[in-house]
Amino acid sequence: MTVPEDAVSTVLVTGGAGFIGSHTCVELLDHGHAVVVVDDHSTSSPAALDAVQSLSGRRLTAYRADLRDATALDAVFGAHRIDAVIHFAARKAVGESIAMPLEYYDINVGGTVALLRVMLARGVHRLVFSSSCSIYGDGGGHPLTEDDPARPTNPYARSKWMCEQVIADTVHRHPELSALALRYFNPAGAHPSGLLGEDPRGALHNLMPYLMQVAVGRRPRIEVFGSDYPTPDGTAVRDYVHVVEIAEGHRMALERLRPGLRVLNLGTGVGTSVLQLVEAFAEASGRKIPYDLVARRPGDVAELVADAGRVAGEWGWRARRDIGEMCRDAWRFQQLHPEGYPG
Q1: How many CB atoms sit inside 10 A of residue 203's CB?
Q2: Mean pLDDT value of segment 335-343
């Protein structure tokens, strides 16, 4: 498909059919960018891209490919005049990464290396990288700033930290590159329309999809991993951010790239425990959410909450949607897709 002549720019979105990637595609299309997606659909559905196009009223171009396949990736760059890349494609589950560390390093780090090679060969010098708050490790009871040290506790977090280091070294060698790594905290919610949301393929690893599937009757109950953390109710505390606002952050990052690598947090600064989220989702859905308290999950930490003051001061980006709105939007998506995306 040809790119519209009036497009602001052409953006390659790796992992564009995933939860955050698909919402970012809507945000980009709504702001006049042309979008090209590369996704292998190992953990996502092509139906998400149909929803993206329905919501935006605009077309995108999609390729099914593994990012590590240099030939396939180079062909995508050859078919389009790519102006910038937003890189989401990765495996992202803490527990799974402990069970299969080599796969995580291969996919996450290897995919990033392959992408950078093709970008440099094709003269594409603008990159927004989907990083992670997990790099910080245990928050230690205070909101985390970009200046806090990296203390990753599991292969997933270490793979993201390695990717940042790979990008930093590449930028140092190729100063024409401009890169932003966004360390966002826990994405949640769905597009307010209910047409686009979180529907992971295969095993579930995040709390919100568990809650959604229990509420809709696809699963009987959830497991709460750890009830003896040093937190107010003993369960892990996280900073949940509405996925639409994270998508907005990626679009804003694209418009603010400058030479070098910068790292910025995206978060609300408000911590929510597992049991508080269970209660909030039960209220939003009007359904009881049965749960079992079980042992801590290896690699998890007690608390991760953001200090997002830097991005607020520099860009004016602030998270405004609260946990209740995230739960209501997620529930709307689940009601409209009780079995997930079709196909």
Answers
A1: 9
A2: 89
Sketch the domain layout of the chain as residue ranges. 10-190+240-267
Half-sphere exposure of residue 281: CA atoms within 13 angstroms, side-chain side: 29
- What's the rounded Cα separation, in Å, for the pair 176 and 73? 21
- CA proximity to 261, closest of 163, 157, 184, 158: 163
Q: Is 291 a catalytic residue?
A: no
- The pairing of strands 126-130 and 84-87 is parallel
pLDDT computed for residue 6 by the predictor: 62
Type of residue numbered 213: Q
* CB 305 within 8 Å of CB 269: yes
Radius of gyration of the chain (CA): 19
Residue 134 and residue 43: Cα distance in Å, rounded?
20
Q: What distance in Å separates the CA atoms of residue 163 and residue 84, rounded to the nearest whole number?
A: 18
Range 10-190+240-267 has CATH code 3.30.1330.10: no
Residue tagged 């992971």 (tokens): 200
Catalytic residue among 104, 136, 156, 210: 156
Q: Which helix (H) or strand (E) holds 128?
A: strand 126-130
Planar angle of CA 243, 59, 188, nearest 5 degrees: 10
d(CA 67, CA 38): 8
For position 1, what pLDDT does the model report?
42
